[in-house]
């Protein structure tokens, strides 16, 4: 009985942080709120530029969230909402910039660096292998080695 | 040759970092340049019943200055705008998110550089113009096209460098 009680208390303690979690959304429509949070997590707050629109407490971020909420309630799709924002603030609001000529280098950079690193690696490895292959043992050295081995055996 | 590689890498890095020092992260490229100024109709401050739309200013080159009574850098900018207005520049004010309605009293006290100021109390029009903070100033040409956006207060130097050449070109 005591064991069960202890276990229950332990479980209660473990569960508590999970309950604490995020602040409850304050709107009547939890579905819209969830959609808003999901979308806003990928959008940049224009005032504190390293915060997402979902996390920022800046005045403008609150206004924009309200605007997004209103548009979602009007039945606009996520794409339409994003379009609304990029029309006004440019691709800068997107944490995932679209793939287009200006951003080719941005998206391509990881592949580019991988290729550069890979080729450097390949060249270095190859050069090392060639060096090892060149280090052949000369005739005198072989004879010396044989002598040493013999003297070892004779002891 | 080989031993200079770290030096070269360092120089390249240093150049990038040095240039980075002078970039302004607030200068977000505006998608509005070369596009018509978004339409709106807002009440004119201090003139009950009267409204203003960008179409009303067609045929002249004008500045739309987004400001607010609660904005400190707008106060800094204010004397510069007063001088510009005195020299005949058409500045229209957009009073952004002035929830307490303090703009009119402020202008009465300090003088108004604006042809007129519209009241964008809930900030919706500001958002339509992609405003991220005050002050911001747009140059709008005779056809109602946005030609430039300046973020931050206008100083005499910035005015000479950024505004004057473009305004000259647009006026002719």
What's the gist of this structure?
Helix content of chain A is 67%, strand content 0%.
Describe the structure.
- The complex is a heterodimer of chains A (155) and B (172).
- Chain A is mainly α and 155 residues long.
- Chain A is built from 6 helices and no strands.
- Chain A folds into 2 domains: 2-98, Orthogonal Bundle (Helicase, Ruva Protein, domain 3); 102-154.
- Chain A has helices at residues 2-20, 30-40, 59-73, 78-89, 104-134, 139-154.
- The longest helix of chain A has 31 residues, at 104-134.
- Chain B is an alpha/beta fold and 172 residues long.
- Chain B has one domain: Glutaredoxin (3-Layer(aba) Sandwich), CATH 3.40.30.
- Chain B is 35% helix and 18% strand.
- Chain B has helices at 5-21, 72-86, 103-110, 124-128, 156-171; strands spanning 42-43, 51-52, 62-67, 91-96, 117-120, 136-140, 146-151.
- A 5-stranded mixed β-sheet of chain B has the order 5-4-3-6-7.
- In chain B, strand 4 (91-96), helix 3 (103-110) and strand 5 form a beta-alpha-beta unit.
- The longest helix of chain B is centred in the first third of the chain and has 17 residues, at 5-21.
- The model of chain B has no long low-confidence stretch (mean pLDDT 92).
- The chains are: A mainly alpha (155), B alpha/beta (172).
CATH topology of chain B: Glutaredoxin
The description of the largest β-sheet of chain A is: none
Oligomerization state: heterodimer
CATH-level-2 architecture of the largest domain in chain A: Orthogonal Bundle
**What is the name of the CATH superfamily of chain B?**
Glutaredoxin
Structural class of the secondary elements of chain A? mainly alpha
H-E order of chain B = HEEEHEHEHEEH
| Share of β-strand residues of chain B | 15-25%
The CATH C-level class name of the largest domain in chain A: Mainly Alpha
Draw up the topology in text.
The complex is a heterodimer of chains A (155) and B (172).
Chain A (H helix, E strand, L loop, with lengths): L1 H19 L9 H11 L18 H15 L4 H12 L14 H31 L4 H16 L1
Helix pairs in contact in A: 2-3
Chain B lengths: L4 H17 L20 E2 L7 E2 L9 E6 L4 H15 L4 E6 L6 H8 L6 E4 L3 H5 L7 E5 L5 E6 L4 H16 L1
Parallel strand pairs in B: 3-4, 4-5
Antiparallel strand pairs in B: 1-2, 3-6, 6-7
